[in-house]
Structure of Ninjurin-2:
Amino acid sequence: MTRREREREREREREHDHEKSCPLDANIYATRKTVAQGMMDIALLTANASQLKHVLATADTHDYYLINLVLIGSSMTLQIMVGILLVVVGRWNINKRKDQNVANVTNNVIVILIFLITVVNVLITAFGDEEPDYVITQKQWQEPRNGIVGDDVYRLDRELKATFNDTEI
């Protein structure tokens, strides 16, 4: 054996020893994955709560009020179910043979529920408002006295227009 081959062999042995000393613990990996899914579920639940607030506030002018109310309620219910299942799955030790089968089935149910949540949220977006309340129209921008655009912004707008009118293009 040449010197280079011996060095490669030693390097392989060190890597092999390292792999033996710190194997991937599937239970820690699954727990981290479950926590990440839970955080995403909370973020989506927050967004749906905000959408629900908007739909309830604009009930009289909302074209698809009832459809949005049902879809948002369904999405939030499914998200709560997924959250509960994630807590349950996170408690099982998948290194134990008896917990593996139940965890696998529950994980598949969670994936199906997340797919349904995605479909429901696409429908929520499809039946949402065309133009949100916070969009400032051109008319409102030109008539700042209606309370939407303040006097300072109106003054700055006039100054900018005057500056552009004075410069040559």
In short: The helical segments are 3-21, 26-57, 65-91, 97-126, 138-142, 151-166. The chain has a mean pLDDT of 78.
